[in-house]
Amino acid sequence: MLKHQPYASLRNSELSSAISKRLNAFEQSIRQASEHYAGYPDNLNYDYTPLLPFFQYSMINAGDPFVQTDWALHSKDFEREAVEWFAQLYQLDPAWGYVTSGGTEGNFHGIFLGRELYPDGILYFSSESHYSIAKAAYMMKIPHVIIPSQCNGEIEYNALRHSLAQYSRKPAIINLNIGTTMDGAIDDIDQVCGLLTEHPGDFYLHCDAALGGMLLPFLDNAPRINFRDYPINSLAVSGNKFIGAPIPHGVVLSRASDVEKVGAQVDYIGCQDKTITGVRSGLAALCLWYAIQTRQHHFATEAQHCVVRAQYLQQQLQQIGVLAQLNPFSNTVVFPKPIKQICQKWQLATKDGRAHIVVMQHLDYSKIDNFIDDMRFRHTNE
C-alpha cells in the first residue's frame, strides 16, 4: 500500500497555512543553525538577491561548456567566463573546465581523466585526503596506494618515494591536497615534483584545492599553485566554500590537450560530453559568475581576514590552556574534541578525538569570542 501523504486531507486554505507554517519553522531553524556554523568550510556571507528573477527559469547546462548548441535554456556563456577566470588565476592556457556539483565531482573528473590517459596507472593519495578520492578509486576500480600522512596532515614524502619506486613500471596518478579536510595541510608540490624526476614512468597530477585553492593565490608568500610552473594536469575547487553559495558547486580545470583524448559526441545535445554528470545547474554557474564579477577584487582581503582570525582563534584557545594547531596559510584550527554540547552547538567536525573550526568570512571576532567563552567554561570545569 502507498504510504499516507502528509496534508492530503486538508482543504486548500488549510494546506496553504500548513505549508507556510512548515516553511517558516524551517527558515527559523536554518537561521539559528547559521549563527553557530563553525566546523565546516562553507562561507555564509554572500548576497545573490539580484539573481532571484532567474529562479523562475529552467537553466540546464549540458555537455561541453565551450561548445554552443541549439539548446537555448542554459547559462554556458557565464559558465565559460567563470572557468576562464579560474584558468587565468592558475595560469592555464589553453584550458578546459566546467562548473561541477562540488569538490567531489571535480576530484572525480580529475582522477577519471588520469585513469583514461593511463589505464594501467596506480593512484596515490595520502591518508588525510578527502574521502572522495578513495571513493573515486573504489567506483572506478583503480589500483591505489594510501600514503601515510605526517602529524600535521601533510603527505609523508619518503613513503611516497618508496611506493613510487616499488611500482616504478606503472604510471603514477597522484592526488595532491591543497588544504587537507581536517588540518588544512598543503602537500608540497615542489617535493612531489622532485620525487617524480626519479620516477621513470608517466605521471598525472591532480590537485584537490577545494578550499585552499582560493586561499593560496591571495596570501603573501604562500606556495605557488599553477599550471605554468608545474606539471599539474587537473585542479578542483569548491564554489560553496570560500566563495559561498546557496547551491553546492565547484570548478574543475584540466589541460585542454588531455581532455581532447576523452569524451564522445552526443547527438541528442549537439556536442561532446566530457563531464561526469552530463547536465549541471545553470543557476550555479550564474551564481559563480556573479560572485566573481562582484567580489574578485575583495578575494585577497577576505582570504587574509580568514587567516588572521584563525590565528586569533588559535591564540585565544592557547591562552585558556587548549592545545590548538594551525598550519601555515590555513584557516583551519585543530584542537582536542570538546564536550558533546559544544560540538553540537557549534556544529564541529570531529575525527579521532580531535575537532576543528574553519574560520570562514562569516565567523567574525564576536563569534570567535563567544566560542572561546564556551570553551573556557568547559575547560575550567573539567
Short descriptors:
Aspartate Aminotransferase, domain 2, 15 strands, 382 residues, seven-stranded mixed sheet, four-stranded antiparallel sheet, alpha/beta, 37% helix
Protein model, in words:
The chain has about 375 residues and is α/β, with parallel strands linked by helices. The protein has a domain at about 50-295: 3-Layer(aba) Sandwich (Aspartate Aminotransferase, domain 2). The chain is built from 11 helices and 15 strands. It has helices spanning about 10-35, 75-90, 105-115, 130-140, 155-165, 190-195, 255-260, 280-295, 300-320, 340-345, 365-380; strands spanning about 60, 95-100, 120-125, 145, 170-175, 205-210, 235-240, 250-255, 265, 270-275, 280, 325, 330-335, 350, 355-360. The chain has a 7-stranded mixed beta sheet, sandwiched between helices. Helix 3 (about 105-115) packs across helix 4 (about 130-140) and helix 5 packs parallel to helix 6 (about 190-195). The longest helix is centred in the first third of the chain and has 24 residues, at about 10-35. It is globular and about 70 Å long. The mean pLDDT is about 95.
CATH 2nd-level architecture of the domain at 52-296? 3-Layer(aba) Sandwich
Order of helices and strands: HEHEHEHEHEHEEEHEEEHHEEHEEH
Q: Name the CATH homologous superfamily of the domain at 52-296.
A: Type I PLP-dependent aspartate aminotransferase-like (Major domain)
Number of helical segments with 4 or more residues? 11
- What composes the largest sheet? 7 strands, mixed
Helix vs. strand class: alpha/beta
From the alpha-carbon coordinates, what is the Rg to the nearest angstrom?
22 Å
Strand content: 15-25%
| pLDDT averaged over residues | 94
Give the CA-CA distance, first to last residue: 54 Å
Q: Write down how many β-strands occur, each being a DSSP E stretch of 2 or more residues.
A: 15
**Widest sheet: strand order?**
2-8-7-6-5-3-4
Oligomer: single chain
Low-confidence stretches: none
